[in-house]
C-alpha cells in the first residue's frame, strides 16, 4: 500500500534510549486520532472509517501487492535485487 515509511530503528533508539517514546509515536500514527491528522494533511489514511470520511479527497486506488504480484520477499530479492538480477538489467546506471 502507499503509505509513508515509518519505523523504529533499533540502533538509533537504543543509542538515544528513546525506544518507549518512538514506539508510542508509531502507535499514535496508526490510532484513529493520528489517522485523522494524516488525512487532514493529505496523507491517505489506512483506517477504513477515516478513509471513508475523506473519500472525496482520496479516490479508490487499486494497490499493487508485492507478495501477490511477485511472490514472497525471498524470491523477490533473489530475482530482482541479486547482483545481475532484474534491477541491474534495467537500471541504466549499471
Task: Please sum up the structure shown.
One of its GO terms (cellular component) is periplasmic space. With 94 residues, the chain is mostly helical.
Q: Keywords, please?
A:
single chain, 94 residues, D-Maltodextrin-Binding Protein, domain 2, 2 domains, 55% helix
Task: Kindly describe this structure.
With 94 residues, the protein is mainly alpha-helical. The chain folds into 2 domains: 1-59, Periplasmic binding protein-like II (D-Maltodextrin-Binding Protein, domain 2); 64-94, no CATH class. The protein is built from 7 helices and no strands. It has helices spanning 10-16, 19-29, 32-40, 48-53, 66-70, 73-81, 86-90.
Question: What spatial form do the alpha-carbon principal axes imply?
Answer: flat
CATH topology grouping of the largest domain: D-Maltodextrin-Binding Protein, domain 2
The low-confidence parts are none
Q: Report the portion of residues in β strands.
A: under 5%
Instruction: Compute the average pLDDT.
Output: 92
The biggest sheet, with number of strands, parallel, antiparallel or mixed sense and barrel status, is: none
Whole-number tally of structural domains:
2
End-to-end separation: 28 Å
- In the CATH hierarchy, what is the class of the largest domain? Alpha Beta
Cα radius of gyration in angstroms: 18 Å
Task: Report the structural category.
Answer: mainly alpha
Keywords: Periplasm, Signal, Transport
GO molecular function: molecular carrier activity
Organism: Pseudomonas syringae pv. actinidiae ICMP 19096
Subcellular location: Periplasm
